[in-house]
Amino acid sequence: MEIILLFISLILILLAAELFVNAVEWLGKLLKLSEGAVGSILAAIGTALPETLIPIIALLSGDKAHASEIGIGAILGAPLMLSTLTMFVTGCAVIGFKHKRKHKDKIVVDTEVASHDLKFFVFAFSLALICGFIPSEMKNVKVIFAAILVLSYFVYVIKLVKENKNIESDLPKFYLSFGNKKIMEHKYVIILVLIQLILALMLIVTSADIFVNSLTYVSTLLGIPAFVLAIILTPIATELPEKFNSIIWISREKDTLALGNITGAMMFQASILPAIGILMTDWSLNSNGTFLSALIAITSATLLYLELKSKKHMTVKMLLTCGLFYLLFLILVFTGIIR
Q: Which of the 8 DSSP states describes residue 136?
């Protein structure tokens, strides 16, 4: 039954991702936002919900020391997964769909938006990493770091929203309109769009929760060690919405939305989540595992940023290279260097 639930929840996540992509594109058009803002803010925050809830729930319940470990691990794990494995999957999607893409395997992305996201991510996550080495007694200093992280996210959002490049690409039919064009011309159509968006988000969160629970049961049944589940399998599961959304947008040649969905989620999880962790835990990152995990994520994102600045475009080769950083992470986990 759990195995059946595993596959059902996977299908539901894919269905929810399609509903979400459809709603978020129409919401962006109605709000007259740029593709960069839609991908990096609306889509990113929405699809980041499953992995965002895990550390918050962990920090609000259970044994304080144990919850702190889980919370900090989850906060650091999400950006690592996005900046390495999710980028790799996106690169694979470009290759997989190149036969139906007008630009084949060339990534046509708004370089200004992508470099903006990556630059802010490297800054915010580096700040969170530095804060982890400040002694616990200096709580006031850590609170200042948390405030700067939250402020940096709002500065990042404001800069994106101020862009004037509205979505001009053809949009697919809005699902809840059921093909009725007159509905889309109604002045209150935004309410219908928000209803579909909320339904899609609820389905994403519920399906991801079922998926993680079923994955936990099946892995226990198969004798997979708990640490493998916590460090590797669960983050892969909770990042499924970003992966599916980006694959859908890559297949439709909306590369700015696809990459913005990932880099925007990275920025959110490098600023708001660490700020929560700093305020709710001692935020100590002195162990090799936590430091190396964060460093791998920052290095991968930095290389992507440097390529964008030097070549003025993003290549499939670079996205695939991000997968090597995830492979490095796995090697460090299984050799016991990252615990």
A: T
